[in-house]
Design goal:
Strand order of the largest sheet: 1-2-3-4-5-6
Strand content: 5-15%
Shape: globular
Oligomer: single chain
Helix content: 40-55%
Distance between the termini: 42 Å
Radius of gyration: 17 Å
Largest sheet: 6 strands, parallel
Length: 207
């Protein structure tokens, strides 16, 4: 085992231990928590080392920069997540390489993704990005628009909304961030009945 592989393995083990401890404190099963390793600033050698250590989900925030990695790992058990903003002119390139798109915030984006997925016989899971803080520098659907996106997604054939996503304000105190996720969970609970027919499960998971 190389020094890189050992370092990545040790770091992953530490992260998983912290996740397991936090899940147990919250009364949750650690196995219900999915770790997505954001690899946007790392080379393919780091991705392969993490994969060898058991990591299966990886996130990238730019479609064009991710395609080399998704191509190099074709045929492996890696699931790629697009965690950054998806531009309309990049949808065709994103559908297929990415199993999950985390940043859907418009009805027309859902429709276009579903159309391209159907055309190419692909399937893709989506998270609706919600803007609760009203920050001009961040994307996201207003809470009142999220319900409309879910309603539209019920008629999709290849794209499936599986939850909500939030980028909270960047604050130094982690405790100050928690209320934003509580608000997201409250929104999830209000919207869940609209999504049950699609059996959605979420970031804040649908019940």
């Amino acid at each position: 085992m190389s020094a890189l592989e050992q370092d990545v393995r040790d770091r992953l083990a530490g992260v998983r231990d912290r996740i397991a401890a936090a899940a147990r404190r919250a009364g949750r099963d650690p196995d219900d928590v999915r770790l997505v390793a954001v690899s946007k600033t790392f080379g393919i050698e780091h991705v392969l080392a993490a994969h060898a250590a058991g990591q299966r989900d990886f996130g990238e925030n730019r479609v064009q920069e991710a395609l080399q990695k998704t191509g190099a790992t074709a045929g492996t058990s890696i699931r790629w997540h697009l965690v950054g903003h998806l531009q309309s002119n990049k949808i065709r390139k994103a559908v297929g390489p990415f199993a999950v798109i985390h940043s859907v915030d418009r009805l027309d984006l859902v429709e276009r993704i579903d159309s391209i997925a159907a055309e190419t016989a692909q399937s893709v899971d989506l998270l609706v990005q919600v803007d609760l803080a009203g920050e001009a520098t961040k994307s996201g659907a207003a809470p009142e628009l999220a319900a409309g996106i879910l309603e539209r997604a019920r008629s999709c054939t290849r794209a499936r909304v599986v939850g909500l996503m939030l980028l909270p304000p960047l604050l130094e105190d982690p405790e100050a961030v928690r209320p934003w996720f509580r608000r997201l969970r409250a929104l999830r609970d209000r919207l869940a009945p609209r999504a049950r027919r699609r059996r959605c499960c979420a970031n804040s998971r649908w019940a």
